[in-house]
């Protein structure tokens, strides 16, 4: 028997028999042998039996029998771990077999009498909680009936007796909820079932009182009755038990919760019908969109819907004006509209888009599939939770395997509600109409979250991140590093269906990377409309910026998108110098940035004036209008490309001219969207003096790479989590319209690929110039700086001693009896750098003193004829407060000036129409 059992054990890889049981069985055999020797007499049961019987020689036979039988009973109980519950079970079973019909109330009352002591497991009377427990009992118990019991603190055992009878149990339970139940989970877990789901599949012969034993308070320290957790528990206990109807699904809530949770797989193998007559068809490779009049039979179908149709035979790749398309005129008009709505300029472009093989193909390594390892980890998580008495499960379908992390979904379950099955008489879990188990108590998500470090310990993970709950999913996500991590190459993202679908809609689509389930994630800069990227040094910001630039360069010609780049680090974006998309060479001097931003604001204002003159609201409207005019042969409107301003290190700019840069970035961020100007700002210093409140408020879409602390994470994405990222492109992406960030492994682009891409575009400048009949040498020069985008260095020395404002500044400081930069800014209405320069000049002239201890206000030495007004300390403090307030007002006004004073409708002049 042992041999067979051991064989089974090794086959099933689990322990079926304990050593103590083996030992017990051996002892039992010896005892039975001894008993048979005592019964049958000497020399009948063998030599061993005679040896065993030696100690009994000379004893009365009855004593020997009683002793040996007693020993047999004791050893049996220990060997098979027989408990009182087993005895009761057998008793019930026999009773049911030989019983004479249903038991009456009398019998129930009898049982009440034989119930275990009501004092069993109760807290001592001197417990500091006893008064509160008593108060809780007062609320729930019938005071008249149980007056005597109220003398004592809450007694879990009191709830056992009524629940023994299947009939009286529900009412009794409902009335006795506040009392803390007893705990004896050994029985609960000792029955060989691994999860509550097992209970759902099999019926269990467990008596009701065994379930009544469980008590969370017993295991956890949160016993304080005034603790909100316990109040909450009491509240839950008041909810009537029994089968509940499932909650009706609120579609609005559901949609809100699942929005942005996971991108739906988009099929781009098929065509998308835009209208009855026009089909948007995916172009092979990386070619632009194809528009094709639909066959007649298809066009006859009613309705104007976007729907999928079966793929048609390939059509020639053409990106031509609708006027040039030899097709029905109605179809060509619709084509033009579709082209315009797809952001495709309606003119033939002589620029060629690069082929996808400019980028490196991903290695052939396949994504890791669900493996033994993963299953073992899932079981480990579940077992760990179970060992902490947290009822939860990890299902196979809730495991997502991403390129660098694996996410396990922990579903909080709870204690199932049990009823007696009428047929078998056993306890089975209650199920609702849809077959789901109804839980008596649910596991709190916070209890799972509290085990973050314990899970990290058992999983031996470098770092784990928990997300509760995962948006749109019924589980808590535990993300651990994937040991078989792999790079996500930009090429595989750009080749994906998702990106193909996105680039049909917008020329500013960017490939972000892959999410935790390995799904490609793309973004649309036009919708963002500005992006803030932050993270510690070496976390992957520059690679992300390169991926954004490459995504644009792979799908957009200079007619579609123009770029402005600021790279104070001087080495990150230099390779893009000379590409035709650049409006001006990459700016590496901080002093030129203010000028660049001023140019951008001027361009924005110019576009606003143009749009208001034409009666369109934004760049999209302008493009539609232009497409319409082109179909009518009117070429008066010029192409307006979108402009993307990329700033690689905001901190350097904020150090140089904080107020000017902040003001201008905010102004652009607030207003530039409609004019097609977008900002991508990166910084490795996520501190509040760089990412100020104003900048954050105006740049809603953010990406956070790994940071060093939760405070930094909060500065960037308004919540912790980024400090638990892995670095090397692991990021949290927070879209403008989502409440929670999404974890993505950023697309990787090597420097060589970026170089190849830039070279591709640089080589085209000459061909393009020849195609347009321009002198290639002149074209090369032209491509460096676009007219109107020349940048000038705003030298501090610009304001010489002869500064016209110096005299007024002198007057101001004498009048106030003190001097500060912000005072001059406010009173003279100048920028920060000019005010700072004026202060320096005043100091050089000896009118004011040096700044003391880094303070802002300086003393005035030369009071002129007026003399000082003898400010007291209190006056000084008042002044500082007034000044602070004025400074904040100024910033706010500067940022929102345009909103309150929209550009006036001035007649458009010829210059503007010639853009
Ligand atoms: N998406 C990615 N996939 C794989 N590795 C990456 C990814 N992004 C970055 N890395 C790795 O991290 C290194 C540092 O990246 P990167 O230069 O972009 O950091 P950074 O945040 O710009 O740092 P700094 O602020 O110092 O410039 C890269 O050389 C690369 O090896």
UniProtKB/TrEMBL annotation:
Q: Where is the composition biased (Polar residues)?
A: 891-903
Q: Which residues form the FtsK domain?
A: 517-714
Instruction: Spell out the CDD domains in the cross-references.
Output: TrwB_TraG_TraD_VirD4
Indicate, by first and last residue, each region the UniProt record lists as having compositional bias (Acidic residues).
140-151
Q: Which residues cross the membrane?
A: 65-91, 531-554
Positions that bind ATP: 535-542
Signal peptide start-end: none
Q: Name one Pfam family in it.
A: FtsK_gamma
List, alphabetically, the InterPro entries matched: AAA+_ATPase, FtsK/SpoIIIE/SftA, FtsK_alpha, FtsK_dom, Ftsk_gamma, P-loop_NTPase, WH-like_DNA-bd_sf, WH_DNA-bd_sf
Q: What keywords is this UniProt entry annotated with?
A: ATP-binding, DNA-binding, Membrane, Nucleotide-binding, Transmembrane, Transmembrane helix
Q: Which family does it belong to?
A: Belongs to the FtsK/SpoIIIE/SftA family.
Which protein is depicted?
A: FtsK domain-containing protein
Q: Which organism is it from?
A: Dictyobacter formicarum
